[in-house]
Amino acid sequence: MAISTTKSQNKRAVSRNVVALNPCRVCHVRELSVCAALTPDELDRLDALVTRLRLRAGQIVFQELDPADHVFNVTAGNVRLTKMLPDGRRQITGFLWPGDFLGLAFADAYAYTAEAVTPLGLCRFSRTALEALFKEMPHLERKVLSVASNELRAAQDQMLLLGRKTAREKLSSFLWQLRQRSRGRDDTLDLPMNRADIADYLGLTMETVSRTFTALAREGVLCLTAANKIVVREPGTLSRLAL
Amino acid sequence: MAISTTKSQNKRAVSRNVVALNPCRVCHVRELSVCAALTPDELDRLDALVTRLRLRAGQIVFQELDPADHVFNVTAGNVRLTKMLPDGRRQITGFLWPGDFLGLAFADAYAYTAEAVTPLGLCRFSRTALEALFKEMPHLERKVLSVASNELRAAQDQMLLLGRKTAREKLSSFLWQLRQRSRGRDDTLDLPMNRADIADYLGLTMETVSRTFTALAREGVLCLTAANKIVVREPGTLSRLAL
DNA sequence: CGTATACTTGAATTGAGTCAATAAGTGTGG
DNA sequence: CCACACTTATTGACTCAATTCAAGTATACG
Predict the structure, then answer these.
(1) How many CB atoms lie within 10 A of CB B102?
(2) Cβ contact, residue pair A155, B160, below 8 Å
(3) Helix (H) or strand (E) run with residue A240 in it
(4) How many CB atoms lie within 10 A of CB B190?
(5) How far does A156 lie from chain B, in Å, by closest CA?
(6) Which nucleotide across the nucleic acid strands is nearest to A214, CA versus C1'?
(7) Could you tell me the strand order of the sheet in which A60-62 lies?
(8) What is the distance of C-alpha A117 from the center of its chain?
(9) Which of B202, B186, B194, B190 shows the shortest CA–CA distance to B235?
(10) Strand D contact at CB of residue B211, distance < 7 A
(11) What's the pTM?
(12) pLDDT of A91-138, one tens digit each?
C-alpha cells in the first residue's frame, strides 16, 4: 500500500491522523502561490477540491467569453493571456509562471484567453468551491485580493510601457522584468515564448523585436547564445534603458 | 436644532435611535460605490470613519510612491490616475467618476499619482480602519475584490487599445466608453478632461487627438459643439470603429 | 480688452510597420 | 547520419501612421 503523492482527491490523505504527504503539502510552488496563505490542515482541505491538469504547448486553458467556472494555479510551465480584435490583431496582457494564479475575474465570463506557452501543469478549482472556502478562510480571500492588487499594479506598468515607451525601452523593460523574476541564475535568461509572443506583449511586430535584439547585442548589452537564450552582459545599461 | 447633512463625524447621527440622515445615508453616489454593499446600520459605522474632502481642479490627491495610508470614494468630479517616466512622458491609466473607488493597492505605496481633473469631492478612509471593517463585514471585502476585478478587466481592455489599436480606433473606443458610462443624456458627451489628458490616456499626442476629432466630425460621425462638448451623430459607426 | 491657455491646422520628419527574401534551427524518415 | 520539409528568426528595402515643430485661431478670464 504505497502512499500516492501524485493522484488528487486521495481520501486517505485528508484523514486527520495521516502525517504523510498529500500533493498540496509537497507542492514545490506552494510558497510562491496563494496557497502560501494556508496552514497544513487547510492545504488538506484544498487538496480534496483540486483537479490536476497537464497541457501541451499551444493548448488552450480557457477562452475569452467562456463561462468563468474555474480558477487555476500554475505548477509548471508558462501561460500567455491574450485578447484579440475581430480582425486578428492580438495583445498579450501577461505571461504566467509557476506559482501564478489564473482566472481572477469575478464576472460571469473570462476577460481573456489563456494558452500554454510550454508544456503546462495546472491545479484547477471550481470557482464556487473557492468562494465557499473564502467564507471559512478569510485570510485566503485577503491573499487573493493582494494577488489582484499586484496584477493591477503590473497592468498599470504595462500601460505605461505600451503607451509611452519606444521599442528599445519596451524590450529592455521586458528583459529587465524577466531578470528580476528569475533572480538566481547569473545573467542568463531563458525565453519560453517566441518572438511573435514577445511582440504581441510589447505592442510591436516580430521584426521590430528581432531588430532590437540584434541592435542590443551589437552594442554589447546582450549576447544571444541561441534564439531563446540571452546573456545580459551589461545589466546596468539594460536597467537604464528599461527606465 | 437643524439636522446637519453635510458635516462628517456627527455623533448624533450614529446614535441608534436617530432615524434622521447621516451624510452616508443620503449620499447620492452610494448605489454606484462600494457602499452599495452596506446596510443602513453599517453605513452609520462607516460614516463615523469618513473624512470628506474638497479639491480644486489640478490638485493632487496623492502621488506615486506616497505611503498608501488611505482609500477614497469619489463623490463628485473626476480624477486622473497618472504614471510618469523620468523624462516626463506621462501615461494616464484611468479616469475616475463619481462613485468610483480610489487607492486600491494593497502595497506600502501607491502605484500611481491621482489628480483632480475637475473640482472634486472625496470621502477618505484610513486603510487600517477599512481593513478592520473587512473583518466584521466580509461582504464589504468581497465588494472591494469585485471592484479590483473590474479594474483588472478594464486595464486589460486598455492594454489591447494601447498596444494594437490605431489612433482613430483609440479615440472611438474612448468616446464609446464615455457614452456607455453616461447612459442617460441622449448622445451629448461632456469631456471633463482636456486634449492632453485624452492623448496621455490613449498613448497619442494632443495633435493627433485633435486631428482625429476633426476627421470624425468631417465624416459626420461626431459634431463638436464646443471643444469639450461632443454630439455622437452616428453611434453605429462609432461603435464599429471602436471594435 | 488684453493676455494666457487650450485647441486646431500645416509641413516635415521619423520610428516602427509591411512586404519580401534569406538564414538558422528543428524534427522526420530513409 | 544526412537530406528534406517546416517552422522560426533575421535582415533588407520601402512605406506610412503618428510625431515633431511651428504657426495660427479660438476660448476663457481677470
Answers:
(1) 21
(2) no
(3) helix A235-242
(4) 11
(5) 6
(6) D10
(7) A60-62, A113-116, A79-84, A90-96
(8) 10
(9) B186
(10) yes
(11) 0.92
(12) 999 999 999 999 987 789 999 999 999 999 999 999 999 999 999 999
